[in-house]
Specification:
- The protein is of the alpha/beta class.
- It folds into two domains: about 170 residues, DHBP synthase, CATH 3.90.870.10; about 90 residues, Threonylcarbamoyl-AMP synthase, C-terminal domain (Rossmann fold, 3-Layer(aba) Sandwich), CATH 3.40.50.11030.
- It is about 30% helix and about 15% strand.
- It has ten helices and 15 strands.
- Strands 1-8-2-3-7-4-6-5-9-10-11 form an eleven-stranded mixed beta sheet, with helices on both faces. The protein has a four-stranded parallel beta sheet with strand order 12-15-13-14, sandwiched between helices.
- The mean pLDDT is about 95.
Length: about 325
Amino acid sequence: METKILRPSPSALRLAAEYIADGEAVAFHTETVYGLGANAFSDEAVLKIFALKGRPTDNPLIVHVHADYDISPLIDGEPPYAATLRKRFLPGPLTMVYPSKGKVSRYVSCGLDTLAIRVPSSPTAQAFLKAAALPIVAPSANLSKHVSPVTARHVDDDFHGKIPLILDGGDCSGGIESTVLDCTGEKPVILREGLVTREMIAAAVGDCGIYAMKKGERPKSPGMAYKHYSPRCKTAYFTGDRLGDAVACYREEEKEGSPYFLCESKVCAVLKEYNAFDLGGTPEEMARRLYSLLRKGEQKASLLIGIEPYEKEGVMAGVLNRMKRAFGVYHET
């Protein structure tokens, strides 16, 4: 199969809609990461997404719709706070989980009685979703457990010859996946942290919880699996108070390999004599650069050594979640 990489022109959008109607998968730009989209109403199309990614079939998917799409036929009501949050944050990097009416493919929610819906703000995503004119199920456009893609080239690296089309909207500005918010209870509860933070949600509606997945429990949301977002190279991970140990690890690897650090700007300044990828100095920079640098690391490093950033709150909670999972040091309670 030939994989076309096209800018979202009218002709490319028509072609994308035709592929979706024929049951194919199309990758497309969003403001967070690239998505791998298919018809959410079609069992065959949804199962194709699982097969293409090598994704476990107990890991639920997110349905994407354009800003004017009426979701009421898909969901079984919503609490007042959900309507407030939709008006405040959508379109944008927030996925909201509702009670489902079961109108989409049964494989989307993996047996759960809920449905996760997102309205991306990316103009490319909006144009694609309007052209498709139906709900599009779309996990990140990467092979399962690999680093999420934030450029069209990243998508092509994982799916060249396996999908017919990638809609290239440029680099993703957000850099990490959307916040996933459970809106089925009396108050919103974050299932996956992201760019819309707990503090932002609580400021809008008065309260917001954070869900802690227990060991052995079925995931309620994408991105809750233990190891995720992982580069294809050896990795090590150290907290910021263990720089001495990190340097010793680097020097040991340097005897036969090519180690690199992955760390925030102020730590890079301390480690300036070593190979290092600079995550940036602000939470937003670190979110935007993380996946690109993980992919760059797997190309250049024999060992990628992550140094945990010092800030932990707000957007950094989502960055740390992805970073720890990428380095295999995230543990469920």
